From TrEMBL, chains A, B:
One of the Pfam families matching this protein, by short name: TetR_N
InterPro entries: Homeodomain-like_sf, HTH-type_TetR-like_transc_reg, HTH_TetR, Tet_transcr_reg_TetR-rel_C_sf, TetR_C_15
Annotated ranges, domain HTH tetR-type: 20-80
Keywords carried by this UniProt record: DNA-binding, Transcription, Transcription regulation
Source organism of this protein record: Streptomyces griseoaurantiacus
DNA-binding interval(s): 43-62
UniProt name for this protein: TetR/AcrR family transcriptional regulator
Amino acid sequence: MTSDRRRIHPRKQPRQARAELTRQRILDAAAHVFGEMGYAAGTTNRIAERARVSIGSLYQYYPNKDAILLELVTRHLDEGRQALERLREETLPGTLEGIFRAHVRIVIDNHRDDPHLLQVMAEQAPRASEVLERVSRYERERVAYVEELLTRHPDARVRDTHVAARLIVATVELLVHQLTAAPDPVEAGRLENELVAMVTRYATGGGAV
Amino acid sequence: MTSDRRRIHPRKQPRQARAELTRQRILDAAAHVFGEMGYAAGTTNRIAERARVSIGSLYQYYPNKDAILLELVTRHLDEGRQALERLREETLPGTLEGIFRAHVRIVIDNHRDDPHLLQVMAEQAPRASEVLERVSRYERERVAYVEELLTRHPDARVRDTHVAARLIVATVELLVHQLTAAPDPVEAGRLENELVAMVTRYATGGGAV
DNA sequence: GTCTATAAATAGATAGAC
DNA sequence: GTCTATCTATTTATAGAC
């Protein structure tokens, strides 16, 4: 029989690392399948197949289909959130245009990997309650951030800061989704410039920036 | 037995009218169910139930579920399209802001009935090929219209008219969807003003409007 | 023309062998 | 830990009585 020492310290024991790798494979496969086929057609069987894992194994890593999507959404949101947090700490100095540019760039970068997946997540996922909650919480944070900016920054000229902030956040998010995932996508640099122009001119009341 | 005359001219024969009414009932029910529950959860059984028609009857009017959605989408697009067509004939005089206002108002009006349904149609329907084709054709028409406007109108100050037109059309459409269907919708009149301000300032290069 | 009952297909999820 | 085989639920769609 195997000694206790052997059992307690099997050599090069890759348990956790291997499991983590499989999780990641499943997640990558799900990202691909959802992005390519949409949420409904992205079945667990197809995800398992692409991850080259049996359906049974998939269910050992995730309790159900929505849990996979939830993790995908959570990771995406967390990346954006962290980037925004860094921005928030760095800049209050700078022009309004400069701040908006940083903001827009974060959103575009955050969507570069897989625009189609992001579109699926933004459009089809939110019906699931927990995903919806996370998305809307993140959105509220961003609106609050922009609203504060519109209140404090000397360049800002808007009457209702709350509504204006909602418009700005929605504009950036939705247009990046739409125009990077379109069949004929707008090039990233140009999109950045145009979006910055749009929201800056809006926020500064149409005066010179 | 019944005479030939009786068979050919049954009195007050309501065949077509009644059928048309049933079709409309099914369509209304589908609009409600899709808008309330989304596309996937909007099953044919639920639609039939709400229309107070048996499932068998429903399939006598529509060959499948997607055909119902397609008709819903088509009707919506046609309404917007006709309104846009009227606008196009009436105005080339007027300020750029005035034209944009008319444009924005059309979109808002076109979404007033049932914002949630429209959001479902915009988000979940497009995966179906035929619907996608119609939606993108209508969108191309609108982009072409705005692009021409940006090219000809003296107030317009944009470099790349095509990209600018895409941004403007997408902004109006997406923000109306998002902000009228949100849990805390932005009031229609205010939304109109803010959207007009945003796209006008963008199109006029940030100068005074 | 409308209904009930059900067929056919496919999804998500689980059991149990290995 | 991973697999195959299978269950259960649900959906679209059809058949056939009335």
